[in-house]
Design a protein that fits this description.
Layout: H1 2-25, E1 31-40, E2 46-56, E3 63-74, E4 77-90, E5 95-105, H2 106-121, E6 124-133, E7 141-150
Antiparallel strand pairs: 1-2, 2-5, 3-4, 3-6, 6-7
InterPro entries: LEA_2, WHy-dom
Protein name: Phosphonate ABC transporter phosphate-binding periplasmic component
Domain Water stress and hypersensitive response: 32-152
Length: 159
Amino acid sequence: MDHAMRLFFAGLFLVLGLAGCASLFDRDAPRVSVAGIEPIAGQGLELRFVVKLRVQNPNETPINYDGIALDLELDGKPFASGVSDARGTLPRFGETVLNIPLTVSAFAAARQAFGLSGVMQRGSVPYSVRGKLAGDMFGSVRFTSSGTIKLPASLQGGY
């Protein structure tokens, strides 16, 4: 009976310990919005630009990140992707602006321009971003966002 009681309490502590660890991962996804987009120099037949993301942490604990990955869709179609080796901490109930360089090939941009020509002439386009803040030992934090963004003049009216 004494051995059975020890096993019972060991199992109980294990379950309570796992429940405590699970609460560490119970956090809301960051709130992300595109704060701006600026062209930068590209190589050969590619277009490059920096997307400025405003990232808010709605959690009681800070989010540490060591790297960022981002995919951008325009008008529901894949457009560009990029990564950054930036690292930092998103403070609890805080926000920051992250700059992520994105690349799109000129061929892909031209292909997309035909489908977006009317939208781009207006100077704004519906967007969707999907990405992650690469995490520490507690894992990565994924996010998504969508809205409408005003394009810089150099990206309007075709490529």
